[in-house]
Amino acid sequence: MAKRSTWCIGAFDMIATIRPNGELTIPLEVRRAAHLDEGDHVEFEVTEQGILLRRLGTEDRDPPYYGTPEWEEGVDRALADAEAGKGMYYDSGEAFLEALRRLSKHADV
Question: Which residues have CB under 8 Å from 81's CB, separation 6+?
Fold first, then answer.
């Protein structure tokens, strides 16, 4: 029997069983590590090593840090700064980019 290479999270193999209608439950640890959520689309590719499962449509997904305590604290600080009139405002995207160019010329790189 050929040696099988296994990628696993933690100190145990993750095994799932294909049900009669072809459904397969991806273990929670794998879904978390791959940032897979209900409704995500995945692609299957058969390779010499086995089956590769690839998440699709990541450009439309929120980054995994959204909703974390750190993210929420940052949003709260940004909203408080905006309400206090702190920050800089620009009339256009081009005006904003020009300000960034000016600032980057003076930055210590």
Answer: 87
Using CA atoms of 28, 34, 40, 44 in order, give the dihedral in degrees to the nearest 10.
Answer: -100
pLDDT truncated to tens, each residue of the chain (109 aa)? 444 444 444 545 678 889 999 998 998 888 888 888 888 888 899 999 999 988 887 565 667 777 789 989 999 999 999 899 898 889 999 999 999 999 888 766 5
Using only the alpha carbons of the chain, give its radius of gyration: 23
Name the residue ranges covered by the structural domains of the chain. Answer: 69-105
**Cut 0.85: pTM above it:** no
Instruction: Return contacts of 31-36, CB within 8 angstroms, 24+ apart.
Output: 33/9, 35/61, 35/64
Alpha carbons 5 and 27: distance in angstroms, whole number: 18
Contacts 24+ apart (CB under 8 A), 100-109: none
